[in-house]
Amino acid sequence: MFLSEPGRTGYDLNFSCFGFPVRVHPAFFIMPLLLGNELISPAVNTGVGLLVVTGIFFVSILIHEIGHAVAFRYFGIPSRIVLYWMGGLAIPESSRAWGSQSNRSLSPDQQIIISVAGPVFGLALAVVFYGLVYLLGGSVGIENDQILSVFVPVFPEGSKYAGRGIVFMICFGGIILNVVLNILNLAPIYPLDGGQIARQFMVKQDAYNGIRNSIVLSLGTAVLIAVVSLAYGDGFLAFFFAFMAWTNYQMLQQYNGPRW
What we know:
two-stranded antiparallel sheet, 4-stranded mixed sheet, alpha+beta, 7 helices
């Protein structure tokens, strides 16, 4: 999500996944604590539930970033992955931040493909969780009138996985998290993937004013989502998108590119 790579600490977790170096900043684990409570089933011990939710967040965001890294590799650019407090980054080895000067050699179409690849991998993982539910003899459908109830796994009464235990948590969390986060990530708000996609499309259409127009679109969309989130009582999302609106406003004020 945010494009500034966090500094290294003595508590970083480092490993390799599919040939990509991965670094997990300790602040990454703040996110499951902030967002994971809604995913913990009442039938599961809170401590165990937090571990399960943390695992779901970890796998989901890692797969999303691997999507970007695979696209970089396709275009001949080595990259590394960093997971931190509000998501992750796939960082080309030639630079410290996506969109920097060293990436100007990539065409707009190539940058769009790289940006799209993350959400595609994330949504594909949601499909895997859907498949797991059906493989275990359940189904996914509407259980009540809540907006996300269409994603609720239902296992038949009397079956091994009936109820809302750990298996339910894994399936429900994997579907919800990957659908919601990856769709939100496609909103045309910079620096989300959708914002980077919108920027490249606008630059293709208007090389003179494309970047400025993309910032204006990003700012307006962030304000709209923040207001809607607040109206629905989701304080975290309202704060998150209000913060992005503020950063885009600052970006617009500081932008020295062409006007009209």
